[in-house]
Amino acid sequence: MFGDVSAPPPLSSPAAAAPTVSQSRIAAIDLIRGAVMILMAIDHVRVYSGLPAGGPTAGIFFTRWVTHFVAPAFIFLAGTSAFFYGRKHTDLSRFLLVRGVWLVLLELTIIRVAWTFNVDFAGYLLAGVIWVIGWCMILMAALVKLRPRTIGIIGVAIIVLHNAVMGPLINALPLGELWKILYIGFFNGPVAGTPLIVLYSIIPWIGVMAGAMRSERSWRWNRRAAVGSACASASVRPRCSSSCGDSIFTEIRAPGAPRRPCRRGSRSSIRPSTRRH
Fold first, then answer.
1. 197: helix, strand or coil
2. Model pLDDT, residue 254
3. Does 52 sit behind a cis peptide bond, omega within 30 degrees of 0 on the bond before it?
4. Each residue of 31-46: pLDDT tens digit?
5. In degrees, to the nearest 5, what angle opens at C-alpha 46 toward C-alphas 252 and 249?
6. Per-residue confidence (pLDDT) for residue 188, from 0 to 100
7. Which of 10, 82, 138, 217 is the most exposed place for a label (fewest CB within 10 A)?
8. Nearest Cα residue to 210 out of 130, 164, 129, 141
9. What is the predicted pLDDT for the residue at 55?
10. pLDDT of residue 135
11. What is the pTM assigned to this prediction?
């Protein structure tokens, strides 16, 4: 009467289980992302409350110190995720380019308004972590044309050598204000002719994202330990070379620029007229 009505396959059959396997995610990556998002939220609450990063209590200092792992973790895992995306898709370069452009635009528009609660774009623009993730993705769109091993070597070389190499390179290449975007950033003030203050410079952070492209070998051994160690080393190595509590990526001074007092927790050192509230 109803024709040949076949029963649906049991849940335990290979046909039903196949989509679950193909869409599986690596839980450790999501776990680390979730943890660093919580740390980031804690520090942003401190910023909005007006408490300085270095005090007045040990607890407040610790909430700022521990968030130094946040940006390295986000950027490192962005590189790791790009690698895994590229294993299943052929449009990795286009994907990174489009997403990177969107992130840069979001940083300078919606995120900027969310931080300041005003639309005075001519008076204040801050290039933060979303900005640098976006630019790193744009650069990675070109780098992914290379072999993952080559990309990883380039990334590790930038992380290890940038402190030694960039000083002489800045003196040798007269790029002027462009160096504020590429490397010297925050403590040298806005980019000339614009209200843009670069909190996260591009060159060191592209090293972190590129270095993560070779991290898939470590995932085969111990996923959680490997990514945790990589994020920690990517964060601690450059930050330990800085004399301030904040990132070395934004503390390098331009040649001939006067040295400014080192204030732990650089967000409180933004000049009063442009301070986040």
1. strand
2. 42
3. no
4. 888 999 998 898 888 8
5. 15
6. 79
7. 10
8. 141
9. 72
10. 96
11. 0.71
Please report, as a single letter, which amino acid is at residue 88: K
Residue 111's closest CA among 133, 79, 84?
Answer: 133
Output the pLDDT for position 217.
56
Cα–Cα distances in Å, from 154 out to 98, 102, 167, 210, 211? 23, 25, 19, 7, 7
Q: Is 206 exposed, middle or buried (0-12, 13-18, 19+ CB in 10 A)?
A: buried
Rounded to 10 degrees, the C-alpha dihedral 196/48/56/64 comes to: -60
CB-CB contact of 92 with 78 (8 Å): no
pLDDT tens track for 126-153? 899 999 999 999 999 999 999 888 999 9
- Cβ burial of 271 (10 Å; 0-12, 13-18, 19+) is exposed
Say which DSSP state 68 is in. G
Q: Give the whole-angstrom CA distance, residue 277 versus residue 146.
A: 43
Task: Identify which of 252, 260, 266, 259 has the alpha carbon closest to the alpha carbon of residue 71.
Answer: 266
H/E segment holding residue 250: none
Are 150 and 156 a contacting pair, CB within 8 Å? Answer: no
Rounded CA-CA distance 69/133 in Å is 15
The one-letter code for the residue type at 17 is A
Residues 6+ apart with CB under 8 A from 182: 175, 201, 202, 203
The segments of the chain whose pLDDT lies below 50 read 1-8, 10-22, 221, 226, 237-277
Total Cβ atoms within 10 A of residue 143: 21
Locate tokens 């290449």: which residue? 173
The CA–CA distances, whole Å, from 100 to 36, 97, 208 equal 21, 5, 16
Burial 161-200 (b: 16+ CB within 10 A, else e): ebeeebeeebeeeeeebebbbbbbbbbbebbeeeebbbbb
